[in-house]
């Protein structure tokens, strides 16, 4: 029993010593942190210092672990990942989305923020022929037109069958009679005057009366439907959600997780070096929508494009942000613990509300 207690105490002491040594080694080394501008998660102030939700979180974690660090700025998320893989960076953070491809080459900490893709569109859509053309070539519109044509043809054939032997206007052979009856059916459907040209038999006139009254209702409903589609399209814009992206000109940031998602859904898109470049192109009317991480889009549009652009309420393709580390990094476990402790505190809730207005 005594030997067992001695062994347990020795193991505990060894573990404590190992933890102390690990903490000492982490605090002794200056950690290079790859960072890029991704407001409101990371942005540079006029004095050259960095601020943002991710910056505040990292500094809080580093304080818990007594880490010494320096920021190394790079232009893109891919540069951050490459820097971690090559060993240039001991960590990389700002708004890095966890993806399967990235997980193959780097380790990630526990996620610290969940988000999704958002869509930026013009705020005030200018009148355009494109929404009208889309409405007029839609499957529903073509179905309605085809339905009216079929009914008109059927009515025309029935009128010819009733009138061909009693009305010279629909006589004179099958071809001439059918042409005349269908012509009359079309004119009657549009409520144009037919003069003396029309059915004379009782069955023919009953059918004509039903057709003319029915066509009034059918055309009224048809016209109201088309008008509604065009009005909604003009008021709400051509893009109202993810399902509309396949029909319009879409933009995305090159080599981003957003571009990968659009590729996976076979959505054609134009690539841009930065979000700002894409938003400028959207404002100029050269694309119809820009897809990117929703909180980043919301921040940039609110800061610089509020009078021209908007971010739709809908979001899709849920994503998670985390800190990227080299494979097998000794930082992963202590960072995970410190990260979870920080996120469970009231400080984190206040920080999220400060930068994003979310509770």
Descriptive notes:
By secondary structure, this protein is α/β, with parallel strands linked by helices. The protein has three domains: 26-112 and 322-356, D-Maltodextrin-Binding Protein, domain 2 (3-Layer(aba) Sandwich); 131-236, Helix Hairpins (Orthogonal Bundle), CATH 1.10.287; 239-317, 3-Layer(aba) Sandwich (D-Maltodextrin-Binding Protein, domain 2). Helix content is 53%, strand content 15%. It contains 13 helices and 13 strands. The strands form four sheets. Strands 7, 8, 9, 10, 11 and 12 form a six-stranded mixed beta sheet that branches. The chain has a three-stranded parallel beta sheet with strand order 4-1-5. It has a two-stranded antiparallel ribbon with strand order 2-3. Helix 2 (53-65) packs across helix 12 (332-343), helix 5 (129-136) packs antiparallel against helix 8 and helix 6 (139-163) packs antiparallel against helix 8. It starts with a helix and ends with a helix. It comes from Rhizobium loti (Mesorhizobium loti). It is found in: Membrane.
Radius of gyration: 34 Å
Number of strands: 13
Instruction: Estimate the strand proportion.
Output: 5-15%
Largest sheet: 6 strands, mixed
- CATH topology of the largest domain: the name is D-Maltodextrin-Binding Protein, domain 2
Which CATH class of the largest domain? Answer: Alpha Beta
Main location: membrane
InterPro entries: Ionotropic_Glu_rcpt, Iontro_rcpt_C, Solute-binding_3/MltF_N
Organism: Rhizobium loti
Protein name: Amino acid ABC transporter substrate-binding protein
